[in-house]
Amino acid sequence: MPELPEVETIASRLRNGSDDLPSLLEHRINRVNLYWERTLATPSVDEFRERVIGQVIKDIWRRGKYLVFSLSEDFLLVHLRMSGDMLVDRNSRQEDPHQRLILLLDSGLRLVFIDPRKFGRVWLVSNPGEVLDGLGPEPLDGSFSAAEFHERLHSYRRQLKPLLLDQHFLAGLGNIYTDEALHLTRLHPLTISDTISSLKSEQLLGHIRQVLREGIRRNGTSIDWIYRGGNYQHHLRVYRRTGEPCPRCGAEIERILVGGRGTHICPNCQQLSGFQD
DNA sequence: CACGAGACCTGTTCGC
DNA sequence: TGCGAACAGGTCTCGT
Fold it and tell me: Rounded distance, CA A258 to CA A264, Å?
């Protein structure tokens, strides 16, 4: 579920509150319930409890696909991976079989990490750079220019889609939004990155920003049983639309495998050639 | 350096 | 209907 727009949606809900639930800012952590030990990447379970209890949530934001909680003393980082979700509920709510970590707050609210597949991870660190330093630029950062993007594309000779999914190259894209952006730009996912013209690079960055902003505006994409609350799934052009007509030309959308990931393309609009105008 | 396969996990959907 | 295979919003590590 979690690519940049979904993580952004969750971060802003926790930070600003929503409907009936208040912002989590200035709430104090009173107690820790850990249900799956490997959820905790670092430190040890004992040290985590000792250090995090008593700390106050001062700020909440997103970097790439990470949720960042700035606490009074440390930073709590959360990566949702494939099936994670982070929500707030009242102390009285019933237990979820997939809850992996619960932070009980003063105020009687609970910050609940849900993760059916158990891939998600949580870090408690004094310096967030320990975890975040390797990440590439934020695609929505206005100071990240098309020229710089083009330069980065040309600093590798790699298949385009796996490169866009590489968080060291660019932070925040996942399978859904990458397929969507490539389709809008009419680029085949196997295009070699250093063959892309500066015009195409600029268009691609524009489309990446377009689908991410639209995803955020619609509170993310809800597919399957995992993430709810978003409705960008009704606006997807190719992702998981195998066999349906391309919204641009009507050809049947195909599913291929690229870098081991299911990939959705229009075979007519996204053709692989040696040069990209 | 770049790529593919396997690992980590559980739940749902597909195909025979 | 039933049952195993395939597949899923991610990322890491290893071998070639």
Answer: 10
First to last CA, chain A: 34
Check residue A97 and give its pLDDT: 95
- Which residues of A in 198-257 have their CB below 7 Å from strand B's atoms? 224-225
Using one digit for the tens of pLDDT, what is the confidence trace for A119-150?
999 999 999 999 999 999 999 999 999 999 99
pLDDT band at A275 (very low <50, low <70, confident <90, very high): low
List the single protein residue with the shortest CA to C1' distance from C12. Answer: A119
For the segment A213-226, what is each residue's pLDDT rounded down to a tens digit? 999 999 999 988 77
Instruction: Give the bases of strand C that a protein CB approaches within 7 Å.
Output: 7-12
Taking a C-beta distance cutoff of 8 angstroms, is the pair A263, A257 a contact? Answer: yes
* A35 C-beta less than 7 Å away from strand B: no
Q: Measuring from the CA of residue A66 to each C1', which nucleotide is nearest?
A: C10
* CA distance linking residue A241 with residue A84, whole number of Å: 24
Q: Give chain A's radius of gyration (CA, Å).
A: 20
For the whole prediction, is pTM greater than 0.70? Answer: yes
Report DSSP letters for A45-95, one per residue: HHHHHHHHTT-BEEEEEEETTEEEEEESSSEEEEE-TTT-EEEEEETTSPP
